[in-house]
Write a structure and sequence with these properties.
globular; four-stranded parallel β-sheet; 48% helix
Amino acid sequence: MQKYQVLNEMHKGYLVAVVRGKSKEEAVEISKQAFQGGIRSLEVTFTTPGAEEAIAELTRTGDQQMIVGAGTVLDAETARIAIMNGARYIVSPHFDGAIATMCNRYATPYLPGCGSVTEIMSALSFGVDVVKLFPGSLLGPGFIKDVKGPIPHVEMMPSGGVSLDNVDKWMKNGAFAVGIGGALTKDAVGGDFSSVQRVAREFIDKVNSLRAE
């Protein structure tokens, strides 16, 4: 059941911080600031040098409420490294059957990047429960509504192009959750990531107000 517990927590929290650091230390700091701002799901990308060490550190020393995952996972070997270091979910920019198999072996959610109905159906055939819509900025919120017409059971999480100005559109069109990357760190200057906490709170407040409508 651990796979579905993680997905359920991600859906409840709704916001996933996509963390791209220039170093392990930077990734850890961005993650902690996002968490303090209220975002529980933290996706540490493997474009970060020492990403697996950042995941291990957050898993070992972070709050137990943190849901630490790995992003930009390009192959099954990297997925296993991430899982062995504590990653609770795996995200990739593409769909890869070998990654799906590895994640299924360890009962770990796999959210592959898909940009077409054909890719989405391939992912579902490999036991994927939630697909990442990528790039979200290109596909747009209406893509979810269009896909859910013929495939109502598919769950989709956009990543890329999600902002405070359009998160309402993603929610109203049925997004399972949303991934936030550049929008979180846009105000960070010179290695000071305290602004991440403020931006995270703005997103949390926006989602909570939309849910209350």
